[in-house]
Amino acid sequence: MSxxxxxxxxxxxxxxxxxxxxxxxxxxxxxKGRGVIILASIGLIWVGGLFIGGVGVFDRKxxxxxxxxQMLIAPSVxxxxxxxxxxxxxxxxxxxxxxNGAYQPSFGHVHEQGVLYTSLAGMLNLLAIMDVLYRDPxxxxxxxxxxxxxxxxxxxxxxxDTPETPPVADNSGGVA
Length: 176
Known about the structure:
two-stranded antiparallel ribbon, 2 strands, elongated
């Protein structure tokens, strides 16, 4: 059994890893399945928003409130820096008729949808960060992973190739 006096565990490294790559903190805590699901779902929403609206959806000065949600995933900060480097010296996006423009910004609803998707992905990642950050060993949802992480329980062997033993037949004469 686990120690009834065990104190809650804060996993700051796991939270930072989740900010860098969604689901990485769950991987660090031994919850690989949950980590893959988080990476796939949040990653697809974030990449989908990037593909819908382009790098112009990451604009710290143009829509700072939405960027606060977007920056909850670290690559958003990098893409925003790249977006800044593509803009003209005046800080404005290139005009559509500018032959030297490095990119063409998205406009209208396409831009808004890209901003919404990437911000939503960031806010979902905040939930994943909070899930990784605090683990209570007394909580039944985290007990097995906590004991396994801290060496109290050996990891379960991978028996995917071995067939399960068949159930034993009841020979008591009764009808099952």
